[in-house]
Structures are given as structure tokens and as C-alpha cells.
Design goal:
- The chain has 288 residues and is α/β, with parallel strands linked by helices.
- The protein is built from 9 helices and 9 strands.
- The protein has a 9-stranded mixed β-sheet with strand order 1-2-3-5-4-6-7-8-9, with helices on both faces.
- The radius of gyration is 18 Å and the shape is globular.
- The chain starts with 6 loop residues before the first strand and ends with a helix.
- 52% of the residues are buried.
């Protein structure tokens, strides 16, 4: 029998709700995994909409909850926030701690198919199946009202997982996402390691290529914010124009906002967090 018990690491009163940090043994990953949850005050009485946040390279399940300032708005709208870790920890893969953009902290939200990564690096299934079930069955997340968003590598994850699992996510947005990983150095490095050298296998994990094969998958729209002083934009790691073109081809409503003077970090994210929370609340139905 699979152990689905949750170990509560800590909890903190926050905007009349509760900020919690959990650990559990993941049957998908085969290792202990951590995740964080903000329960709005409305969750004391009813199931509430649940919004998954996927963080970027080097981050953990704590980063978003500490830096983004999202709890205030989640409490106002009555939405649960869930943030998983960005990779397995202590998988024992040779070299997993040698580079900040591959291995630990850099799971890229895919299920690796290549050895030695394939045994533990199964982040897509972990998030969309195991974690999704935990927060909608053992915690008061409403399975019928779930959204997903993320930043950078996590923006890539949000845009891809939302498209690959349309039955589970009703809304999607992103901050400075890696929009076309098949065409940027970060993505090429990670996909080669996790998915192999055959680029055809990468297409189903590339947000822009997935969108090109779609027809208006999110009729209520997608929201993306991008800082124009983002150094990774200049390095051709993010390629928002590729996703913008793919949405135009798919007739997918997209609001891609370009902000002069803003960089890639959480000062940028926190500035526009209120807009993203309102965006998801409108599509998922506020419990406020």
C-alpha cells in the first residue's frame, strides 16, 4: 500500500490563513519531497480554488512563499497556493550538483526518459498526478477549480503542463517563462540530458511547439509578464516572441506585457503578483 501521509514541518499564521510546509515520501519520485501550501481563511469551511506555482532554476518550495507576496491576494480571493520543489533532492545521480541549470534544483518539470535521470527525475507526473491528488484529497483544494503559473523554468513548466493536462488546469499564466526550450541553451542542455538527443521527443515539452499544434486551448486567455531589463531575455533564453507567434497561429488569446526597467527576479514578480492572482481568481471563481 502506498504511503500518502503528510509530515507537517511548520505552519505560520498569515493574513488570517495558514502558511504550511510539508514533507512526504513520493511514490513517483521514490524519495522524500517537500512542498508548501497557503490555506486562505475560507479553506477552514469549504473547498477552495487551488493555484499551483512552479518556481525557477535553483529554487525550492520555500522561494515563492517567502519572496512573492502572494498570500495577501490569495486570502482576498480565497485561493489555495501550492508550490512544489523544483527537483528531487539527494537522488544520487552523478553530477546532479555540479551545475545550477541541470540536476538538483533544475528538474524542468518533465519525466526524464534517459538514464541515470529517469529513476527519480519524474517531476511532471509528480505534480500533475501525485501532488495534485494530495492537495485535492487530503487538503481542501477544489479539483474542479485548479490553475497553474510559474516563473522562468517554472513558467515553461506551467505553460507546458497546462497544455498537456487541459483536463486538470482551467487557467494558466507565467512570469518571464522559458517559452521555447527547444531553441535556447537552457532547454537544449536539460532536454538532451533528460529526454535524449532526439529533438522530436522534445516537441511535446515545448510550450511554443505545443501551442502551434493547438486551436485556442484556453479561450479565457493566457497572461504573461516579461521584464525588458531581464538579462536572460538578452541571452535568448526566454524567447517570448516564439510563444506570442504560436498563440497568434493557434488563435489563442494572449496578453503578453513587456515592462521597461524590470529584471528577472522576485522584485519584478512581486510587482505584478496582484494582477496574476486576480487573473486566476476570475477564471477559477473566487471563494472570497
Amino acid at each position: 500500500m502506498t504511503d500518502t501521509s503528510l509530515e507537517l514541518i511548520s505552519e505560520h499564521r498569515c493574513f488570517d490563513g495558514i502558511q504550511r510546509f510539508y514533507r512526504h515520501h513520493s511514490s513517483t519520485i521514490g524519495l522524500p519531497m517537500g512542498f508548501s501550501v497557503f490555506l486562505p481563511p475560507q479553506a477552514q469551511e469549504n473547498k477552495v480554488p487551488v493555484l499551483f506555482y512552479l518556481a525557477g532554476l535553483t529554487c525550492t518550495e520555500e522561494t515563492f512563499m517567502i519572496k512573492a507576496g502572494a498570500q495577501r491576494f490569495a486570502a482576498q480571493h480565497g485561493m489555495m497556493l501550492v508550490a512544489p520543489d523544483t527537483s528531487p533532492r539527494g537522488a544520487g545521480v552523478e553530477g546532479e550538483d555540479e551545475n545550477w541549470d541541470l540536476g538538483t534544483g533544475a528538474g524542468f518539470y518533465v519525466d526524464a526518459t534517459q538514464e541515470p535521470w529517469s529513476r527519480h527525475y519524474r517531476m511532471e507526473t509528480y505534480i500533475t498526478s501525485e501532488l495534485y491528488s494530495l492537495v485535492t484529497e487530503q487538503l481542501p483544494g477544489d479539483v474542479a477549480r485548479a490553475g497553474i503559473f510559474g516563473h522562468s523554468m517554472g513558467g515553461h513548466g506551467a505553460l507546458v503542463l497546462a497544455q498537456r493536462h487541459r483536463e486538470k488546469f482551467q487557467s494558466v499564466s507565467a512570469f518571464a517563462p522559458i517559452s521555447a526550450p527547444s531553441r535556447c541553451p537552457w532547454g537544449e542542455k536539460a532536454f538532451t540530458a533528460y529526454l535524449g538527443a532526439d529533438r522530436q521527443a522534445w516537441a511535446s515539452h515545448d510550450a511554443s511547439l505545443l501551442m502551434e499544434q493547438s486551436q485556442r486551448p484556453f479561450p479565457q486567455g493566457i497572461l504573461i509578464d516579461q521584464g525588458m531589463d531581464d538579462s536572460f531575455l538578452a541571452q535568448q533564453q526566454l524567447l517570448p516572441e516564439a510563444f506570442e507567434a504560436a498563440c497568434a497561429q493557434a488563435q489563442q488569446p494572449l496578453v503578453l506585457r513587456r515592462h521597461e526597467g524590470y529584471d528577472h527576479g522576485y522584485y519584478f514578480i512581486s510587482t505584478f503578483m496582484e494582477d496574476h492572482m486576480a487573473f486566476h481568481a476570475e477564471r477559477l471563481g473566487s471563494s472570497a
